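[step 3/7] inverse_fold.run input=structure_tokens len=264
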């Protein structure tokens, strides 16, 4: 039985962790299905975003499955496996040619909070709590530290990690963990509005730009400047850029070619 529901809604592929009875916790099966969904979105023509959410209204994702009888979870090391499945998911999200959006319908804790931080955008219901309680279990949120550090300040990462205390959705906005917090009744409308906005932009520019942003973020400042000046001329010669300039000069809306699900 599938642990992640996959639904195409307009220009977005929605991936819903369907384990409400287990607080939408992550295990090997869930992570494998999330990876497959993210990769499928990159191949599917017309898809411009991946929306990741959880079933129900209480919990977006409570992180790793902590049940003692869990059949594989992100905390268990397998010496025969090269990658932790959380790392594999983050790599797939990083490589995706389309934007990733966290629809934070409920509490996002531990690995669930890391998943929020790993997405390009996050919109949360205003009742949710966000945090990393691992320290209260004798652990530290190591697997999600890279995503947290790229999204939050070091001081906020340390505060959340060292205290284990969650923050409200409003404070999540203040520290940059989510883009906005809205009433639960408005959550879907805000997510769909974002997808519509993304779908209106040039698909090639998004593919180039998303990869460039992720690459430059990991570079020293002057290396990033050098990289940017090399990529810009390539982007300016794409079909979308030609059409964008033509539409601007002709004072009409651009007519983008249908985005190909090339995964590039």
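[step 3/7] decode complete -> sequence:
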């Amino acid at each position: 039985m599938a642990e992640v529901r996959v639904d195409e809604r307009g220009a977005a592929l929605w991936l819903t962790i369907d384990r409400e009875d287990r607080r939408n916790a992550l295990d090997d099966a869930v992570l494998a299905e999330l990876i497959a969904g993210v990769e499928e979105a990159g191949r599917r023509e017309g898809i411009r975003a991946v929306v990741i959410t959880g079933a129900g209204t209480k919990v977006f994702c409570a992180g790793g499955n902590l049940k003692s009888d869990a059949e594989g979870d992100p905390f268990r090391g397998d010496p025969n496996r090269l990658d932790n499945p959380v790392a594999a998911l983050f790599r797939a999200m990083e490589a995706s040619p389309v934007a990733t959006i966290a629809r934070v319908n409920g509490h996002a804790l531990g690995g669930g909070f890391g998943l929020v931080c790993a997405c390009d955008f996050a919109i949360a219901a205003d009742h949710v709590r966000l945090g990393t309680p691992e320290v209260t279990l004798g652990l530290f949120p190591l697997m999600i530290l890279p995503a947290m550090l790229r999204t939050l300040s070091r001081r906020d990462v340390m505060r959340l990690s060292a205290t284990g205390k969650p923050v409200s959705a409003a404070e999540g906005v203040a520290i940059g963990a989510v883009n906005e917090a809205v009433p639960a009744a408005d959550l879907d409308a805000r997510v769909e509005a974002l997808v519509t906005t993304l779908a209106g932009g040039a698909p090639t520019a998004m593919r180039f730009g998303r990869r460039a942003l992720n690459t430059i973020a990991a570079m020293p400042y002057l290396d990033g400047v050098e990289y940017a000046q090399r990529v810009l001329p390539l982007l300016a010669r794409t079909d979308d850029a030609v059409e964008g300039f033509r539409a601007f000069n002709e004072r009409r809306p651009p007519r983008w070619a249908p985005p190909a699900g090339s995964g590039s």
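[step 4/7] annotate
Strands lie at 4-9, 12-17, 49-54, 59-61, 99-104, 107-109, 121-125, 129-131, 167-168, 180-182.
The radius of gyration is 19 Å.
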